[in-house]
Each structure stands twice: as structure tokens, then as C-alpha cells.
Amino acid sequence: MNKAAATKGNTAAGVVLPPLPDDLRRQEAHAPVVEGQALIAILARERQALDRANARQGRTVRFYDGLTMKFATRP
């Protein structure tokens, strides 16, 4: 019943939002810690993981900003 109501509401509103890209839902794992490995190598991999997560967040923001620009009400 909720799904039907949501579908009816979306149809009445006339706005169908695009799906969120799958990449933007992914969580970034921490770099694995390998016993005996130099800490600097582990830190470097962790920073690479953080860079990927930050890039993904940037894509999310651009995606959302694109939606708000497209569907923003104009006076």
C-alpha cells in the first residue's frame, strides 16, 4: 500500500528523480594492516583509501547539486 501511494504521489508530482549511481553508495574499507609491514606503507594505503572516499563524496555532491539545479523552483 505504501509503495502504491508513493508511486501515485510521484506520478502526481510529475518528477521522477534519476537513480543514485551505485558507486556513490559504496563504503571505502580501511587499508589492511599486515603484520611486519612498515607503518609508512600502511599509512600510504590508508591515505589512498581516504582520497577515494573524498572523490566519491565529491561526485555525490555534484550529483545532488545537479538535481537541485534541475528541480529548483524559480521565481
Offer a few descriptive terms.
75 residues, mainly alpha, 2 helices, 60% helix, 0% strand
Give a written overview of the molecule:
The protein is an all-alpha fold. It is elongated. It is built from 2 helices and no strands.
Strand content: under 5%
Unreliable segments (pLDDT under 50, ≥5 consecutive)? Answer: none
Radius of gyration: 20 Å
Helix/strand-derived class? Answer: mainly alpha
Number of strands: 0
Topology (elements, then pairings):
Layout lengths: L1 H12 L25 H33 L4
Concise overview:
With 75 residues, the protein is an all-alpha fold. Helix content is 60%, strand content 0%.
